Amino acid sequence: MRKKIRVRAGDGYDFIIGDGLLSSAGELTASVLNADRIAVFTDSNVAPLFADDLEKRLQKQRFQTCRFVYEAGERSKNLDTVSAFLDFMAEHDLKRGDAVIVLGGGVAGDMGGFAASIYQRGIKFMQIPTTVLAAVDSSVGGKTGVDTKYGKNLTGTFWQPSLVLCDTDTFRALSPDDVLDGYAEVIKSAAIRGPRIFSDLEEGKFHTAMPDIIARCVNIKSDVVHEDERESGVRRILNFGHTMAHSIELKSDYQISHGKAVAIGMLMVTKASEKHGLTEPGTYDRLYQLIHGEGYRTETDIPLEELCEAARHDKKTTGDSIHLVYLEKIGSAKTKKVRLDDLYEFMNV
Known about the structure:
- The protein is an alpha/beta fold.
- It has two domains: 172 residues, Rossmann fold, CATH 3.40.50.1970; 170 residues, Dehydroquinate synthase-like - alpha domain (Dehydroquinate synthase-like, alpha domain).
- 42% of the residues lie in helices and 22% in strands.
- The chain is built from 13 helices and twelve strands.
- The strands form four sheets. A four-stranded parallel sheet has the order 4-3-5-6, with helices on both faces. A three-stranded mixed sheet has the order 1-2-9, with helices on one face.
- The radius of gyration is 20 Å and the shape is globular.
């Protein structure tokens, strides 16, 4: 199976998903990039698995390649790593017409895209996501960035890739826990705008029809980004569950991974919004049964007061308020502006 989805953001680009795509990476890259040099940005887990093969295929298309490998993990997602990569590109004489290829998960995509967006005031880049999380979420939409000590993704840009290649064969290297991490973003996509996908997930179809469901989720995100590329309105619904999730990640020193935190965050906000009469009764139970049935933790030991305090630094805040995403019902999401001083009261149900 091979599917192509046109993402209508920036100048527009294709998201191609299917098995065996890495074998065509050289030709597909040459179809969108007119570069002399390509810097491959990847991490210490992914590099031994796929980087050699990718570079050989790029070199067959007469691209000159160099490789930057950083230590895998969220703790590397900072300005120090980006600065080192910027120096690396300068050392290897990359020019404005050259490009970056990001090979890896969401951390790689966020950092590599950010570096590409600021190197020589912006050079082109491609995404080759190797995790479900990156495929369904971070590789699409053009958000890039790094963490600071105050929170997730507080420094970043909007910078759209030229192409996204998602070779589903790379998912075979993932542990069941890694797949679970990405599945949370699939649930999120279905909950906000994909009621039929949500029903398919309830029927257990994700694990038997993963590429198709990922493609459908990418379509949802593409449509939302097309409506609001810079996140000034409707695009905020893509942050369903993320307000509490980012706080959970931060307060756990990133020992709780993004997908696991999103699962908890979705349940927390849905329980609250249903209690406040904003959400159709029974929505929380459906969401809980799906999340709990996959083996996620459904709550955190971190005190709610600490999570709400950490949310003050979330990038979704505006002035003294935060845009909190909630479900009206499965498949329909809205935002509610909540004063930061009232967030604890809203969530404490």
